[in-house]
Specification:
- The chain is built from 10 helices and 8 strands.
- The longest helix is centred in the C-terminal third of the chain and has 21 residues.
- The two termini are 20 Å apart.
- Helices cover 47% and strands 18% of the residues.
- It is of the alpha+beta class and 260 residues long.
- α5 runs antiparallel to α9 and α6 crosses α8.
- β3 and β4 form a beta hairpin.
- The strands form 2 sheets. Strands 5-4-3-8-7-6 form a 6-stranded antiparallel β-sheet. A two-stranded antiparallel sheet has the order 1-2.
């Protein structure tokens, strides 16, 4: 039973759209019965939603969502600033871990920081918003590269010039491909002092409603702050934060999709 509101028609229309979104194509009778809608007003709502291109009727005479909702979603996503969405979640992550947090995106043959949140409790690490960083010597860079389409990944790798600046830097394309496959399997990346000898980083990907990679976030600290005992725990924290941000962009895990 729907809650009575000052605008019952709007409440019922939204309930119809949510029901179809959760259950897929549905018959009028199923919607009316489940939502306990008055038949007369329900059919008026169906007609108006169809007129506004919010729903349509498929070949089985079931109602399903239609094109105008896609248009609305597209306009909303176009005007979203991922930094505004990520900032409060990254702030909580930074406060919980007392480590530096970054948000980064792919920018041609490099990664780029677009947000930096620094904890007063951690040792300062040289970075800034707008800084370009390596795709094979940084946690965010490897994370962004790992979830590219295979052909795009190979195109980017073919343009990289490998320079080993620390003993742990990856030295060639084959080593990078092996690393990227491991990152995909475990769901997060790790920079083991590959760009700066005493700096470590764990990073995780952010996806949108189309399951497309849009960014990555990272925790950065010294070898003492991200030691071998803490690394997996911190990776779990980063993954959880990245998933929260992804959900706000419309992403759903396979389990969540199946449950709905």
């Amino acid at each position: 039973m729907l809650e009575i509101t000052p605008v019952p028609a709007l409440t019922r229309a939204i309930a119809i759209l949510e029901f179809i979104a959760q259950h897929g194509p549905c018959s009028a009778a199923e919607i009316i019965e489940t939502l306990a809608l008055p038949k007369s007003s329900a059919y008026l709502l169906f007609a108006e939603l169809k007129k506004q291109r919010l729903i349509t009727i498929d070949r089985n005479n079931n109602y399903c969502l239609w094109t105008r909702l896609v248009e609305f979603a597209g306009h909303a996503l176009q005007h979203m600033d991922i930094r505004d969405i990520a900032r409060p979640r990254l702030t909580r992550l930074m406060q919980h871990t007392n480590l530096l947090c970054h948000l980064g995106i792919l920018d041609g043959g490099h990664a780029c920081y677009i947000l930096k949140l620094e904890s007063a409790a951690t040792i300062s690490v040289r970075s800034h918003e707008g800084k370009s960083l390596s795709l094979y010597r940084s946690g965010i860079g490897k994370c962004l590269l790992a979830w590219q389409r295979p052909e795009e990944q190979e195109r980017i790798i073919s343009g990289l010039r490998f320079v080993a600046v620390t003993p742990t830097s990856l030295r060639n394309a084959d080593a990078l491909r092996t690393e990227l496959a491991r990152i995909r399997r475990q769901g997060w990346s790790f920079d083991n002092g590959e760009d700066y000898p005493d700096v470590r980083c764990v990073a995780a990907p952010i996806f949108n409603a189309r399951q497309q990679l849009v960014a990555a976030i990272s925790l950065v600290g010294t070898r003492l702050e991200i030691d071998d005992d803490k690394r997996d725990y911190l990776a779990g924290q980063v993954i959880a934060c990245a998933r929260d941000i992804s959900r706000l962009l419309g992403w759903r895990s396979p389990a969540e999709k199946h449950a709905s």
